[in-house]
């Protein structure tokens, strides 16, 4: 017996051809026309990369400062010898020995962990807790810094970290469904450009970005034409 299509699926199909590829602006416009959930969905750019995830010199990670912010309230902790400076700058929690002890006890109620350079020798004690969750401060992601106020401002203001998974896929948050199409398109373009810049030097003779898709939490994906982003 043939399954009956849901109203959401039928409405999604009516938006356009999901087998085709579109410019960033066109893809975001299509997404905006799709049925929305009852909550403010997160919007992401997903990419399939032409790298070998087993090769350490082909790992892909980086950050992007979204011009229109991420739409997410980001909880930030700071490992520092000067916790008051971090708290005054907007950190949700700050400290060193006491904060390390709290994290080692299993607390991970935050989105981003920042550390001063000098504190990193102590922060390594919580690597087993933070590492598997992708929360370990890292110079490459800009979360090891001696300008704590500026780093907190950047993280809370829309700087998003991205990291490739074990299957050579990557997802970058670019905003919320409540954003207008122009805001999402600008954020998407910034995210893709940051991804292009993160191409490993060791990658030669292989197309770096194989596919790009934009989608929200409950929507179908809309393909983005990768040709403009291939050197």
Report on this structure.
The protein is of the alpha/beta class. Helices cover 29% and strands 22% of the residues. The strands form three sheets. Strands 1-10-9-2-8 form a five-stranded mixed β-sheet. It has a three-stranded parallel β-sheet with strand order 5-4-6, sandwiched between helices. A two-stranded antiparallel ribbon has the order 3-7. A hairpin with a 5-residue loop joins strand 9 and strand 10. The radius of gyration is 20 Å and the shape is globular. The relative contact order is 0.26. The mean pLDDT is 91.
Summarize, please.
With 231 residues, the chain is α/β, with parallel strands linked by helices. The chain is 29% helix and 22% strand.
| Cα separation of the termini | 49 Å
Write down how many β-strands occur, each being a DSSP E stretch of 2 or more residues.
10
Percent helix, as a range, is 25-40%
Q: What average pLDDT do the residues reach? A: 91
Unreliable stretches (pLDDT < 50, length at least 5) are none
* Helix and strand element order: HEHEEEHEHEHHHEEHEE
Rg for CA atoms? 20 Å
How large is the count of helical segments? 8
Shape by Cα distribution = globular
Biggest beta sheet summary: 5 strands, mixed
**Which structural category fits the helices and strands?**
alpha/beta
Give the strand content.
Answer: 15-25%
Strand order of the largest sheet: 1-10-9-2-8
């Amino acid at each position: 017996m043939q399954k009956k299509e849901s109203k959401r699926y039928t409405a999604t199909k009516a938006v356009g051809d999901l087998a085709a590829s579109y410019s960033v602006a066109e893809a975001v416009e299509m997404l905006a026309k799709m049925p929305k959930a009852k909550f403010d969905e997160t919007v992401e750019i997903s990419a399939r990369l032409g790298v070998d995830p087993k090769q350490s010199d082909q790992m892909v990670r980086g950050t992007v400062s979204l011009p229109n912010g991420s739409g997410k309230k980001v909880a930030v902790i700071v490992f520092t010898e000067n916790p008051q400076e971090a708290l005054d700058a907007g950190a949700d929690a700050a400290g060193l020995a006491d904060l390390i002890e709290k994290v080692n006890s299993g607390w991970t109620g935050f989105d981003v962990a920042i550390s001063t350079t000098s504190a990193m020798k102590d922060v390594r004690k919580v690597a087993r807790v933070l590492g598997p969750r992708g929360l370990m401060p890292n110079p490459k992601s800009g979360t090891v810094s001696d300008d704590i106020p500026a780093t907190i401002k950047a993280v809370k203001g829309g700087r998003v970290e991205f990291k490739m998974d074990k299957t050579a896929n990557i997802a970058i948050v670019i905003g919320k469904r409540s954003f207008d199409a122009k805001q999402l398109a600008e954020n998407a373009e910034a995210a893709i450009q940051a991804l292009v810049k993160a191409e490993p030097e060791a990658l030669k003779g292989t197309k770096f970005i194989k596919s790009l898709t934009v989608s929200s939490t409950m929507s179908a994906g809309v393909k983005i034409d990768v040709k403009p982003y291939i050197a």
